[in-house]
Specification:
This protein is α/β, with parallel strands linked by helices and 626 residues long. The protein has 23 helices and twelve strands. Strands 9-6-3-2-1-12-11-10 form an eight-stranded parallel sheet.
Length: 626
Amino acid sequence: MDCILEKTNCLSEDCKKTLRKALKILGKKNLAFIMHNGSFPSTDGQNTGFGSINSDGGKEFIKYVSGLFDAIQLGPAGKTKSCDSSPYTGTIFSGNPLFIDLKELTTKKWGQILSETTYFDIVSNNPNTNLNKTSYSYAYKKYNEAMQEAWNNFKANPDKKLEKEFHIFKNENSFWLDKDSLYEALSVEHGNDYWPLWGSDTDKNLFNPSSIEQKIEFAKRIEEIEKKYSDEIELYKFTQFVLSKQNEETREFAKKHDIKMIADRQVAFSDRDTWAYQSLFLKGWCLGCPPDYFSKDGQAWGFPVMDPDRMYNADGSLDEGGQLLKNLYKKMFKENPGGVRIDHIVGLIDPWVYKAGKKPKIEEGAGRLYSSPEHSELSKYAIAKLEDLNEEVTADKEKRIKTLTKEQIKQYGALIEKIVIAAAKEEGLDKDSIVCEDLGTLTTPVASVMKQFELQGMKLTQFTEPDKPKDPYRCKNIEKRCWAMVGTHDNEPIKMWADKNIHTHEGYLHAKNLVEDLWTESENKDDIIVKLTEDAEFLAQTKLVELFASEAENIQIFFTDYFNIYDVYNRPGTSGDENWSLRLPDNYKELKSINLAQILKLAIIARGKDFAEKNKKLIEKLEEIE
């Protein structure tokens, strides 16, 4: 079978069909590739310092995964700050201008509003041209300059068709675009884009008036700023228009290649969002994580918390805060037909909150917003009652709530039901389009809501605790309705994990479990255990076999694992240009990717002799691809 094309890891259509058949036999409904937008590769002569699925390199990658993968799991798509490259602190509505394909703006399609000279200057001066790393600070500055030039040229010689589309875009998106662009103007006015440092209390609170008089005063100030910085505001809106138009074209391109995009909704709100919607947040409280094994003082994220009193009206309909979130999710589902991954689902259902300026510790007043009936300040929001608590367990523990009624579960799940699921349905999707990041903390309310609404969580096999037979991330315990993976953007690649586990006691425990789960009928189990404890390559591959041998219907693979890239995309708790910077190399087709045919063959064999015999011909075809 002519499977490998030339000397690349590209597979022929016949080979892809064989692999797809194996996936179907193993009960897999979806195979998704995880790669955040900035990590997409470039084509020759187009490396501007930041990746984008909208670029020629991005579209080429869509064609590469087409026929084998069903979807691409992207990262958060919001506009990030000049001083922080983390996509998880980006805006909730505005898109990231770094995802714009600048090269397209040099073509007749866009009236050549960006000169080729400017474009090639950006490419030629990219400091990371020959590295598979983004150049965040460089790209941030250069893209701003490029879009200023493009806007100036568009104004000077507007294309009538594009001008009309731009006008429609502004009208349709005014509910968020007006505020976001005004923030941009005020950032120029005050010389920085961090609103708490602005010198004017009026400007800090333009959408948070405390009286009718203030509302009138603030409206005049808004009008003044809009007039003074009309060009900056229009530039911001134009940039968002360009990005939106390119995103739509890429979705159509992906659709033709049977690839869907899955969005990523971070738990955070950006500075821009916090300023614009501060009247909807709970004053004096922040979202974080309680102390745990990784952080003795907890994680003080500093993110705002939606005010429960602004979420729903007395009749159960959505209040302004609830409608804001629904508008957000409707936009995400509309733009991402593959669905939405919700980061930190506990932050929606059972959030841990702490007082601003304090640590997220119980002794400093922290607690779960809806699960603290004993708390002097949070009790008014409590859904759980005192009699529902296990008083021997502290407020920061998962199993503190021992009992919940159906009505209480419904209350905890109101946001999921009335906002997330409702938004998906209104955009023609069902609840299976919702991927819940439920790794780590899984409190009783969260587990109950996910069960009640049949939501699919995540199972990360790298997190398996080998000394716990019932560990939910272990192969034999992974449930059918979930998304399983060996790692995400926050983990080391599985090869790096394997290198650290060989010749260790924990590695032996992992090996013992893998053999019990995958080689149940083998007569030489001890020999396989020994090999797993000594051979990192074999251990890493076996963890991938475990993934596909599991009952999980949906599989995701991070690009470092698929292409055997020995590097880390994100190291939690760190910042700077080095973090979030890893890209897929431009020559990815020449890299040695995982041997998926062999992995799927071994996964079929791991299901037992009868299953393997039934699929003997398929195994033989997979062996030809190996």
